[in-house]
Every structure is written in structure tokens, then in C-alpha cells.
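Input record, target 12 of the design panel.
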């Protein structure tokens, strides 16, 4: 059975050769991921000032234009590449806001969670069976409510949820990025999800 990583690698190769069908398939798979990247990277204030779908579209356009320079080596490379582009788009727009409004720094702040943003594969899902944050992250239900809950998390909890649940990095990879052991990352992720579940249940 073909994994999402294998399918992505195959589609990337075909897309780089100019196959329009492969390009369409690739971005139909990842467009929703990019939306999650952008929405969860934006603070509540920033979401009120920027149109997230414009950022999603710009991210996809930039990635399409730069696809020829992208090399797929390991599973997850394409997601991390999109994450970096999305992050750059967010930061670029934040700089524009700063330039347009002198005191915008007091009102708008892009959360700093690491060098990449990341993601979860949106495939075919059956009816949602529960409304916990973990299931919502995989079923893309109640996004608005989940955003409100995530906004209330402290930065390190929000960061670890993005890296584990959205970017889907391993504990070892996250540990290398954050300078923590795999066990420490696992414990932090557990505490973060417990806190998110508590907050979510009160909204």
C-alpha cells in the first residue's frame, strides 16, 4: 500500500516534469495543510488583521514557482518546505503591518515557535466520533473552537502541539530542535495536550 510520503514523492517528481494533473493532486492534498499552518501560526490579533486565505494562496503560488528547486529526500520534506514558505509569508506580512502602523508591534505579534510550521495529512475521514483536540486535529472539525483553545496556551505548549500534531515531527527530531531529550519532549507533549483538552472543554 502506497504511503502518503511515497505518493507525495511520486507526485513531486511528476509535477517537476510539468504534469498538470500531478500538480493539481499535490496541492489538493496539501492546500488544507497549509491553511492549518497559517491559522495556527497567527496570533488572535494577527488573524483579525490579515486574511489567512490570501496567505495560503501566496504560499502555494510561491511553492509552485519554486518547485523546480525543491529536492525530496526524506518523508515529510515537502511539508517542512511548505512550512518554511508559509512562515516567511507570515513574517513578510507582519513587517508590512509594522511599516504601515507605527505602534502595530504593541497589537500584533507573530508567535515564534521554531524554524518550521507544519502539518497533518488531510485524507478521507469518516464521521467524527468525538470532539477532543486530538481528533479535531485529524478530522478538521471545530477549527474555530480549537483556535480559541490554542490561543490560551502558553507558548511552549502551543509550540510542542504544532510540532507534534501538525508538523508531525518525531520526539527525537523535536528534541534536537529544542535542545531537549526525547523523553522530555514526550512529557511536554503529554502535558500540553492535557492542558489543551482542559481548556477546550471549557469553551
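The sequence produced for target 12 reads:
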Amino acid at each position: 500500500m502506497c504511503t502518503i510520503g511515497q505518493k507525495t514523492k511520486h507526485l513531486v517528481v511528476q509535477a517537476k516534469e510539468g504534469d498538470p494533473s500531478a500538480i493539481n493532486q499535490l496541492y489538493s492534498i496539501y492546500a488544507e495543510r497549509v491553511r492549518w499552518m497559517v491559522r495556527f501560526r497567527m496570533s488572535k490579533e494577527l488573524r483579525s488583521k490579515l486574511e489567512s486565505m490570501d496567505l495560503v494562496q501566496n504560499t502555494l503560488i510561491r511553492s509552485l514557482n519554486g518547485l523546480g528547486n525543491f529536492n525530496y529526500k526524506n518523508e515529510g520534506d515537502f511539508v517542512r518546505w511548505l512550512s518554511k514558505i508559509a512562515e516567511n509569508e507570515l513574517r513578510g506580512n507582519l513587517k508590512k503591518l509594522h511599516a504601515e502602523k507605527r505602534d502595530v508591534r504593541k497589537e500584533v505579534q507573530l508567535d515564534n515557535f521554531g524554524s518550521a510550521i507544519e502539518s497533518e495529512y488531510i485524507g478521507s475521514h469518516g464521521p467524527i466520533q468525538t470532539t477532543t483536540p486530538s481528533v479535531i486535529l485529524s478530522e478538521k472539525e471545530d477549527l474555530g473552537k480549537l483556535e480559541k483553545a490554542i490561543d490560551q496556551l502558553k507558548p511552549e505548549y502551543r509550540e510542542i502541539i504544532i510540532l507534534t500534531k501538525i508538523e508531525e515531527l518525531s520526539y527525537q527530531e523535536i528534541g534536537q530542535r529544542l535542545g531537549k531529550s526525547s523523553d522530555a519532549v514526550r512529557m511536554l507533549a503529554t502535558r500540553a495536550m492535557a492542558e489543551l483538552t482542559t481548556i477546550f472543554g471549557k469553551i
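The domain at 1-123 is CATH 1.10.1740.10 (Rna Polymerase Sigma Factor; Chain: A).
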